[in-house]
Amino acid sequence: MSDEPDPAESDELSGSGLAAEKARRLGLLDEMRQQGLNPYPYRFDRTHTLAEVRRTWGELEPGVETDDAVSVAGRIMLKRDSGKLVFATIRDRSGEVQLFISKAVVGDDAFAAAKALDLGDWLGVDGTVMTTRKGELSVKPSELALLSKAIRPMPDKWHGLADVDTRFRQRYADLIVNEEARRNFEIRHETIASFRRTLATHGFIEVETPVLHPEVGGAHARPFTTHHNTLDMDLYLRIAVELYLKRLIVGGMERVYEIARTFRNEGVSTRHNPEFTMMELYQAFGDWNEVMDISEELITTAARDALGTTVIEVRGESVDLAESWPRKRMIDYASEGTGVELHPSMPLLDARRVAADHDVFVEDRWGTGKIIEELFEKTSESSIVRPTFVTGHPVEISPLARVDRNDPYLTERFEIFVDGREIGNGYSELNDPVEQRLRFEEEQAAKEAGDAEAGSLDEDYLRALEYGMPPTGGLGIGIDRLAMLLAGADSIKEVILFPTLRPEAN
User: Fold this and answer.
1) Are 368 and 346 in contact (CB under 8 A)?
2) Which residues, other chains included, contact 42 with Cβ-Cβ below 8 Å and sequence gap of 6+?
3) What is the secondary structure of 286-346 as a DSSP string?
């Protein structure tokens, strides 16, 4: 039976469709309660997950009945009535197993109750392990217990929820029937778990820093604003965790990271969600070279842990993440893309002319460095297929990165691009409090001139730097975009359990 997306599933359509099916199931609930039965018991004690049953007894020969007792539970996904036998497939988080329900074993009343079960019901079973004559691993129940009656029928197993928006809005229903959705989130989970294991082997400490910030900083983004009533002050949902983590480096913690829920008051698209997950790390006594190395290790190891291989498919190409990632400067990409040698030291008017020739919009307050970034995005970004470190960003667009030791117009900063998307950002951290103040003042001036994404002057962070921060390398990786890459998903909504959506139409 198919669950249609709203508004077609209106309960006003009494006597037909969903409304009739819900009414039938509610009637079954009433009958159970009148018989003194509880359709929603408090607990059920399992001895095995369904995957454990398969691992332990998966090699049984066809037609074998054992005396091995198990207690298992799951949602009924399929059911077939064959007279004095009912075959049902139940699924838990780990997998599926068939139930071989025999009237001769469970008795008349339990068998009648089994026949009345609906797809979607949760069932607990005590029984023994067996295989059918065709070799299907099964549990033969001696006792059955309804654990939760499903009032609403499941979406069609073969077609799922037809409307994409409904899939994301009703993720609970999507996960029931959509194997690909379940796989996406298993990959996401394994990716995060892999990051934690890898960082632990490198001596990093996982920390938690504030979500509510008194200042906007650590990235270029428009923040969400809120108000603290007791303190009578405006606060901002964090757009990054960088400045707090670097305070901890000042405090001597040396290697720290956070897997942080982060918020940016920006558009919603296949690549953007207003709340997303970042992994940020900071490593004392290192620079951008160490951080690039650990970037490759983290992502390659995560692929191996989540997928069992380091080879993924990108735009129809097989890409081995274990192969060394190329490094190329942003100005070189932009120069090749425009056919003009570009550098932040070039006259601003010349940069503006190149932008005009390539239909790139330029705001009055932008310098040459920002224009070069826009030219890179217009001409080159989408052409990057395999993982690549785009390096050497102009100082103007990198307020927290150290100046390149060989070129005062560039910084020791990189972004990781793959499949035309940026999934990571890192640099040698600026630790000179005098220069950092000048950079912050430029940011503050840009904000006052109307740049809603510019940061503000964070006096407490400057005070921390004045205590002395050792040479440090920092890195941020977007967990959602990495999960998209590893899962082969086209939209960020496929790897966020509950993405931000427009209000549901009434």
Assistant:
1) yes
2) none
3) --HHHHHHHHHHHHHHHHHHHHSSSEEEETTEEEETTSPPPEEEHHHHHHHHHTS---TTS
Neighbours of 430 (CB within 10 A): 23
Helix pair 330-338, 368-379: axis angle to 10 deg: 70
Q: Does domain 17-173 have CATH number 2.40.50.140?
A: yes
How far CA 211 is from CA of 224, 459, 469, in Å, comes to 11, 18, 23
Alpha carbons 193 and 199: distance in angstroms, whole number: 10
Q: Tell me how far apart the 2 most distant CA atoms of the chain are, in Å.
A: 90
Cα separation values, 164 from 4, 26, 432, 496, Å: 12, 29, 50, 14
Backbone angles phi, psi at 472, to 5 degrees: -145, 140
- Using CB atoms within 10 Å of the CB of residue 206, give its burial: 0 to 12 exposed, 13 to 18 middle, 19+ buried: middle
| Size of the chain in residues | 506
Tokens 């006096």 appear where?
A: 459
Give 49-106 pLDDT, tens digit per residue: 999 999 999 999 999 999 999 999 999 999 999 999 999 999 999 999 999 999 999 9
State the sign of the Cα–Cα–Cα–Cα dihedral 242, 246, 247, 248: positive
Tokens standing for 501? 């959506």
Strand 205-206 with 255-263, pairing: parallel
Query: What single DSSP character describes residue 493?
Result: G
The answer to whether domain 185-326+386-494 has CATH 3.30.930.10 is yes
Domain segments of the chain as ranges: 17-173, 185-326+386-494
Q: Which residues contact 376 (CB under 8 A, 6 or more apart)?
A: 330, 333, 334, 337, 390
The beta-strand segments (E) located in 2-136 are 65-82, 85-92, 95-102, 122-131
Which tokens hold the place of 165?
């928006």
Beta-carbon neighbour count of residue 294 at 10 Å? 19
pLDDT in tens, 370-424: 999 999 999 999 999 999 999 999 999 999 999 999 999 999 999 999 999 999 9
The pTM assigned to this predicted structure is 0.90
Residues paired with residue 257 on neighbouring β-strands, in sequence order = 206, 281
CB of 9 within 8 A of CB of 18?
Answer: yes
CA distance 250 to 464: 7
Inter-residue contact 138 to 131 (CB < 8 Å): yes
